[in-house]
Amino acid sequence: MKHLGELLIEKGPFSEILIGNHALVRAMIESGVQVVTSYPGSPTPEIAEAILSIPPDKNPLYFEFSTNEKVALEVAFGAAINGRTACVFFKSVGMNVVADSFVQLSMMEIPGGMVIVIGDDPGANSSQNEQDNRHYARLAYTPIFEPKDAQEVYDMFKVAVEYSRELRAPVILRLTTHTAHYKQKVNFGTYTPRQLPPTLFDPKSFGPYIPIADNVPIMKRRALEKLQKWAEISERFVYVTGSKHKRGIITAGLPFSSLLDVLGEKVGEVDILRLGMVYPLPRKAIVEFLRTHEEVKVLEELDDFVEQAVKAIAFEESLDVKIFGKTDIDDWIGEYTPEKVATVLSKTWPDLAQLPKRIESVRIVKRPPQLCPGCGHRPVFYVLSKILKDSDISVADIGCHTLGFLPPYNVGQVLLSMGHSVSTGAGLSLMNDSRRVIAFLGDSTFFHAGIPGIINAIFNNHKLTLVIMENGTTAMTGHQDHPGKRIKIRNLLEAIGVKYIWEVDTYQQDKLEEYLRAALEAPEFSVVIAKHPCMLKFTRERRRKGIVKVPQMRITDRCTLARVCISKFACPSFQVGVDGRIFVHKDLCIGDASCTVVCPSGALELENVSASGGDGR
């Protein structure tokens, strides 16, 4: 297989095994997309990875990581109303961030076309909730395509671009964690480089773009008229299998793929209506399907979005059909994997779904999430676990540092969303003279959503301490760049009026403790910038440079088995052997030596090893 970047710009048609996110980028290129924007978040980071793998001198896409999802959407919108075909992608909860601008899009004429790719996350694999973003489509009169696999990710994106240009309207391509990472052989078309079209921004021809009172009714009518056209288009994306059985299933996306696995040889005993568009629904196709069946099951992940619409259609059409949807709370939760679909389907038709055999409970070693070896966040939580009082309140935020909530640190007691920590902490500090408040914020989140809360804290004289965990990257989603590469956090803090600022490398634990204690006792809002490069990124870069053997920690005879390195500092490189002695796991230790100061007996030393060559351990 060719390098991914070269493969994505192949001129001729070809087939290759790719995941949905990578197939999507080829669809962008074939469709003539010109501008792509994003804020990183799972399950979508591989889209950016694929774009950035294309040689810069051959890449037909302008791509940027924006400071947050709302900014990314607005940049894409600006390009699209100027005639450039644009795409923005982000994770599920990013939809909340873009909402203020997103709900306006359908009322605007977008001559370049604009596709919004959402990575929803049933199962909350990497998100703080399981929100179902199909509801936003109804709120904003915006259509949704929902592919079932990698091939359809590619196919539907191209179709979405085509119709978006034709109707000059936004359209959503809804991926979920499974479809984003679905791996299969995908058949691709041809790629012909296109000339950049002239700029098209012309409010006289395509406006109005200003939603004042006189214009809003006109703009809303335009959005609703386009929605009617989208409803007609949705009738072209229905897929019916079966031969007029009494029972039928309406489904879409991943649940359809799982359903086929569950039915197996019984697939011929029930008819299936698969929806390619889940909003607006293909009313004619649904009416016909309901009319020709006695019982219909609506099978969908998360909320009863399609179910409620199907039941409404049946009522309005006076159809004599029994419709089954979600039966209990469990049906609303989690990914619709084959096991889940079997469980859900068995509640309605036990004869069609054989429940998987339960494995007898087995004892397995618990493996909770943990900070990487050498992580610069670890010293912060270790120090704070020593100096915080039981009465102190700590507010977590989104990022690797969220893991401070777990034992043994137990730092971070509440979490809402990106950037909330300062404002939630400010609220906790009100009418509170007895309990100190400390909040945490990652450097990427600082630029994403943290600055307004800090300004608010300064403006309203809120007394709390903020620790900015600066590791120089957007680590949790794959080490994407953020504005901190060019814009110094301290300079911004000083510019907005923060008086009490301390800055320290977290490996300097004595200074770190001194500064944290001072900040907690400051008379007003205070900030500690706790800096250290992400060591996962650092070690990868070190290997790329050929430095594969580095000094590692060793435990000397001075060890008294105090186990501070394990029970309080909690570096995963330290483990307990069958003999009860502590040893250093050579495959995990990176030789960062941040642990040396925590050992009460001074038993931790750095080995004297050549800094290059070796076997990679």
Automatic annotation (TrEMBL):
Residues of the 4Fe-4S ferredoxin-type domain: 580-609
Residues in the signal sequence: none
Broad class of enzyme this protein falls into: oxidoreductase
CDD domains per record: TPP_IOR_alpha, TPP_PYR_PFOR_IOR-alpha_like
GO MF annotation terms: 4 iron, 4 sulfur cluster binding; indolepyruvate ferredoxin oxidoreductase activity; metal ion binding; thiamine pyrophosphate binding
Record's keyword terms, sorted: 4Fe-4S, Electron transport, Iron, Iron-sulfur, Metal-binding, Oxidoreductase, Pyruvate, Transport
Pfam families reported in the protein's UniProt record: POR_N, TPP_enzyme_C
Keyword Iron in annotation: yes
Name of the protein described by the UniProt record: Indolepyruvate oxidoreductase subunit IorA
